[in-house]
Amino acid sequence: MWLTFSRNAWRKFDRDKIDGRVDYYFSPQHSVFGRYGHTRIVGLQPSQPFRPEHQIDQDFLFPSRSFGFADVWTVSPNLTNELRYGYTRTRLEFATPFKDEDVMATAGLRNTGGIKGTPELAFTGAGDFQRLIPHAFFSGPTSASAITDQVSYHRGSHSIKVGFEFARRQSFSVSAITTPSFNFDGQFTGWSFADFLLGIPRSMTRTLASPSIYNFQDEWGFFVSDEFRVRPNVTLTLGMRYDMWPYSVEKYDRQHTYFLDRQVIVVPSERSKQFVVASFPTNRIPVMTVAEAGFPTSNARALNETDKNNFSPRIGIAWRPFGGNSTAIRAGYGVFIYNALASPGTSTGGSLFTGSQTQQQTLAELRANGGPLFSFPDPFSGFGGVTQLDPTTLNFGATDGKLRNPTTHEYSLSVDHQLRGWGTRLSYFGHLETGFQTVVNSNAARPGRLAFAQNRRPIPVVRDLNSAVNGGFTRVNGLQVDVRRPTAHGFTLDFGYTWMKSLSDVRTGGPRTEANFNRQRFKSNTEFSFRHQAMVRYVWEIPVGRGRHFGAGMHPALNGIIGGWRLTGITVFQSGRYLTPFYNGLDPAGTTPGTGAQLPDRIGDGELSGTTRTPSTVPFFDTAAFACPGGSSINGQPNLLTSGCPLSTAENVGRFGNFSPSLIKGPGLNIWNLGVRKRFNLPRENMNFEVAAQFSNPWNHPNWELVPNVNLSSAAAVGKITAVGEQFVSPFSYGNRDITLELRINF
Length: 747
Prior knowledge:
This protein is mainly beta and 747 residues long.
């Protein structure tokens, strides 16, 4: 069978890099500089006839270039102006060796429309070979440019800065029309691969237009700050910033949203309508411009109003209460406002501008028709003309056009004290984000005991309406203790401990159906946060060798082997992330169709003590502490559960499970990273040779995968840990023991 192995194919790989800088001084008070950088990375596959084992091979092109300019002018001893401009552009391009080849036509298929690249072939029950991956051409250029000007004025106890900035971001996604997909499941012969050999797919799907998009977004910012020395031991910093981010626009106005008040699709302009694909059911879901629909926004191209209330005050104070440098108290508060590149609640492709068609056939239809409805070598004849999509199968983004930018409040208080060289800092930090932009399904049926039905939706003509709304929050409170031991006897030590509690009512993954109606019940620990972390950094000049405590007069040859070594290390102990057990089944409140991830009832604590955990054989948490709302059937529909989730009674139908997300603590981390190194001086001045060894997880202590299986419907695997985690970002790298040897010449 083909594609039962992987390989590292030979290919051409080139990397070119150019950097340059020019400085020019008009005078000692006025100078400018410019710099330019260019990088080009190319990987090419060899030209060869199409073979399935080559399908994962792709050419790639990654050119980037950047330019920077700065003008610094000291107008007077207390007045300076800094003007800066920067531009960067990158392009990430992927293609297969078959990007310019109509592989389907080469294979003998007819009426392919000249679509280039390899189609998708999906097989069910065909052994190791399950899929031929679709590939075509993709290019993703992005660019950003910014100009800032800052005037600094110093007089007396004041240091004032005033400035502005303007930035433009561009994000493009350029793609060919997606190649079609063909699915084979053994419907006609009992074996999917035999269906393929006969050329009879179970289903096929094709797109009608390229999904390319061209997004632009501008940003304006103005700021002023004053650092004021109130007294010799008190410094006060006051600042104000104003930002304005119009939401992103698409170059050709290929952007749309669903307008709930009128139950229509809204597009920016008449130009948008020329890109609507023929399969979109405009007879049942009208497409209107902003003006035609009376959509409430003055920024028609973005389909969202520009938030103009983005004032961000900031204040900071530093106080040395005893006059000297041994004790300092610092406090700060600031407001930060941000925006995303994409315009929330809108879409740039989807069924309106990209569109797709799917055709299916069954064995019964084949028998009734006297042959397949569509088959190779001319499968596309099965589509006939372009038929309109069923609107009840379509999902849309939605917005009221009046989204606000989220606001983040950050505040902190710290006390620093130094005694006999020991440094100590005690800190409190806080973070509150309000007006979080989140998504709710405005078209979910209301919770109840009735089985889900399309006519129970508020707008039955469509499926899900994923509305972008303000209202979510995230709140973080934390305490930190940092202690630094002065270097003594060649030993330096830093210790830090963090306690943090992070809460939010916004969920980005997992079961979240109830959030459409009651987001407050989702107020819980954030998914990726930890509660405790202790970190120790240490450096030890090992006291062996010439000039050290032991072996001060050691022979140079012996000193070169065992003397003059340095040991460095970082050790981290961290509590685990929070887990959300779920089960797969019907929505017990009848708000959504089909089966999916659902929150269970919590009937016990769910936590297990460390002594009872055997990760590979015993669940990490108490799976018996959870039950499923509803029984083996809900309103006459089978609830597809397994024994991994204990069943409760059918009286629970009509509500969601009572478990709140992210309440079960997952496995923690025990991280050790050590290094030893030694330098050998070379005859040339300021030149030395360095040898080092780095040890990640030197004890080979297992750090379990951070998120074990939490699917309660998977009876054999739920809660069990079957793998160790891996992370190779210093200083938190962990996984299996890893040793790196390093040789380096410094000059």
